[in-house]
# Entry
Amino acid sequence: MKKLLPLLAFGALGLTFSSCIEERIDVGSPETEGFSNALTLEFNSDEFATLSQSLDIDQTITMASVNVPFHIQMTSGISTVDQTSSDARKALLGRVLFYDSRLSATGETTCASCHKQEAAFSDDIAFSNGINGAVTKRNSIALGSVPTFAPVISGYGSSGDEQTAQVDGDVRFFWDERAGTIKEQSEATIQDELEMGKDIHELSSELKELEMYKILTMKAFGTTDLTPDRITLALEKFTSSIVSMNTRFDQMRDEEIFSGVISGNFTASEREGAQLFRSNCSSCHGDEMGKPRINIASNGLDEVYSDKGVGERSGNSWENGIFKVPFLRNVALTGPYMHDGRFNTLREVIDHYSEGIQDHVNLHPNLKGNNNQPRRMNFTEAQKQALIDFLETTTDQSVLVDPRFSDPFRE
# Structure
């Protein structure tokens, strides 16, 4: 799963739930148990006993609420992002799916295989391990690098479930942006012959027969019918709940806005790095560590690319060597870097931008000098370290240990 989303509030949509189902376990629905407006989600004793056979989760689950840093409030108009009960129930189902090896044809991989919590939901190797000894074609994009909670909800799908809107010109998915929605991205990953190799309709048929999923699906959707659309929506709700807004970078930006200066809580090197980043990097990545200003670009890794990126998908020569511009929150944790994981460290990345940009035919204008040649930023050793020190302030330590995002399965 490779997910990047803009800062948008939760959509509030109502669903109609049935009261119970005739299954081996009497599963209460959200509406009949008063969950629709509750601050907590609670399983009854029978449900919890069944779930506890496989899962290590709490019987009562509290809705999440996240304070938005002031510098993001200024552009979003949002001071807090509060998880609804509906979203929390779907996110819990998505969390279980995210860590379930049944999503792969051989039982070898899970979504978490390529997106490890301790690495801000990235992978720590250049190409992730798939099924049957295969490896992925590109580096796994970090999921925990997004400062947001959820995408816009636009309406209902054919099954009556809420659906995510695709906003034209906004963030798309995968390095070559071939997926326009989380649904497309999730289906492609699950069914990819290298990564998970599982037909999503077969997956739906298998999972909906399991008592554990009957309970979780009923809580999330008011039915035990875990359809492919509901699988992908639950995964979306889980990955959307991974919020990275508790960083020293956010403290730095808020200080700067309120007082006009960055205080002594930050080292001279971190402060210098912030200025260097703003002067040299923010034209593509943005200076708020939110949505990048440029969605896709060639950053001059090579003069000739073996992987053509967007051009390989589109067939357009002017898009060869062009890839997604990634979010940079938690970037110190998400190496190796670039679409092919060629750089193991942030120092190597900075060396590239300092003196290694290649003269690719589609090199982005922001990386060209006045002579139309690749820029040579020529950072000093101290400046390179300052940039590293600054980028390390974007780490959100809470994401790495939050039990809401951890593997729920018992050993």
Notes: The longest strand covers residues 153-156. Residues 130 and 195 are 4 Å apart (CA to CA). Residues 1-37, 149-160, 163-169 have pLDDT under 50 and may be disordered.
